[in-house]
Design a protein that fits this description.
14 helices, globular, Aspartate Aminotransferase, domain 1, 4-stranded antiparallel sheet, binds pyridoxal-5'-phosphate, 7-stranded mixed sheet, about 400 residues, alpha/beta
Length: about 400
């Protein structure tokens, strides 16, 4: 993989922050976007902007074709799903809210149990709690081991006749842990329990095959995959989607409306109320093209090289560093604290040196409580990060550590 060539495709990487070249290590929050994806957005606004699925005129048909092509592209990308099983949403958060609001009540009854894990993002906790205010079910939580991997013995032991649903992240946005979701799904299915996967952190790094995983639902966001913001996907098995009620009402999701009775559109449109972000959806296909052309395995190998190198050097050279999440095969995410330094101070000082990292609880407060901390500094790598940047980050962090320790 020619990283220098890749970098040329990302205009934002030539920015300077405090007169220093930007080193962007906040890829877990959102990744940057290559020129061809930006161009696709500009092209849509310049040449094909028209509302989709409605018009008989040329522009509308072209815009519709772009959206439906993108749906086909996504279906193919996640392992040959049917296009009916690919619902466009605003992001992972909306995808999980959709499942919780629409599928949740079909399976979670008063007294039922939902299994989550302690490493979930709030997006995979709060939608279920909102549902709990309507249905009194219980939430059971799988803990983690020392290295940040899930305790699968506890996972299996949580199942009983009340267990109705499992919802788990494929990869943790804090620890980087990649959960063995294939095995977890297999076990849940052996108990007759469906599984929702929050794939927000896996889809940018791993080859996703929803069919091989046999996931009941799989959610992810385009903006973490070199794509536009405001677009997400919910994959759902057709058999579930068919019996789920619509999540939102409005245009596009209906077949016939009268004041007495409304019938709903076929899949996937039943779940796509209102005008979608047709510009972003079309551009998402370009981001997928970019990822596949660059090579998902190649990107992952490159990120892992940076992860291993940086982790080793940080442990060797900053004795007071504590790294949270050391599970084998984790994603290229380093969550850490230095001595007694506050994560916010570390992040602020790194910013002054041109380095963008994330600080705080990373929308995973229950995990922070379990780790006994308030937050971490998080550095994460993507395809365009270089070994020189890793080197600069290590040196900058040593300077910051010397100031704050
Ligand atoms: C594991 C995980 N789940 C869900 C989300 C929410 O994604 P979005 O904000 O794109 O809806 C994130 C975002 O950081 C995440 O890391």
């Amino acid at each position: 993989m020619d990283v220098e060539k890749i970098r040329e495709e990302f205009p934002i990487l030539s920015r300077k922050i405090y007169k220093r070249p930007l080193i962007y290590l906040d890829n877990t929050a959102t990744s940057q976007t290559p020129r061809e994806v930006v161009d696709a957005i500009v092209d849509s606004y310049t040449h094909t902007k028209a509302n989709v699925h409605r018009g008989v005129h040329t522009l509308s048909m072209e815009a519709t074709e772009l959206v439906e092509n993108s749906r086909r592209r996504v279906a193919e990308f996640i392992g040959g799903a049917s296009e009916k099983e690919v619902i466009f949403t605003r992001g992972t958060t909306e995808s999980i809210n959709l499942v919780a609001a629409s599928f949740g009540p079909l399976v979670l009854k008063p007294g039922s149990e939902l299994i989550l894990t302690v490493m979930e993002h709030h997006a995979n906790i709060v939608p279920w709690q909102l549902l709990q205010s309507r249905i009194p079910f219980e939430i059971k939580v799988v803990p983690i081991r020392e290295d940040g991997s899930l305790d699968l013995d506890v996972y299996r032991s949580l199942f009983n006749e009340r267990t109705a649903l499992v919802s788990v992240c494929h990869a943790s946005n804090v620890l980087g842990t990649v959960n063995p979701v294939g095995d977890m799904i297999e076990f849940a299915h052996s108990q007759g329990v469906p599984v929702v996967i929050d794939g927000a952190q896996a889809a940018p790094h791993l080859r996703i095959d929803v069919k091989a995983l046999d996931a009941d639902f799989y959610a992810f966001s385009a903006h973490k995959m070199y794509g536009p913001s405001g677009i997400g996907v919910l994959y759902g098995k057709e058999e579930h989607l068919l019996r789920m009620p619509p999540y939102q009402g409005g245009g596009e999701m209906i077949e016939n409306v009268s004041f007495e009775h409304t019938t709903f559109a076929e899949l996937p449109f039943k779940f796509e109320a209102g005008t979608p972000d047709f510009v972003g959806i079309a551009a998402f296909a370009k981001a997928i093209d970019w990822m596949e052309r660059t090579g998902i395995a190649e990107i992952a190998a490159h990120e892992h090289e940076l992860l291993d190198y940086t982790t080793r050097r940080l442990i060797e050279e900053i004795p007071s560093i504590r790294i949270f999440g050391t599970a084998p095969g984790k994603c290229a995410i380093i969550s850490f604290l230095i001595g007694h330094a506050h994560h916010y101070d570390t992040g602020m000082l790194l910013d002054k040196l041109g380095i963008a990292v994330r600080t705080g609880h990373h929308c995973a407060q229950p995990l922070m409580h379990a780790l006994g901390i308030e937050g971490t500094v998080r550095a994460s790598f993507a395809a365009y990060n270089t070994k020189d940047e890793a080197e600069d980050f290590i040196l900058a962090l040593k300077r910051v550590a010397a100031m704050l320790e």
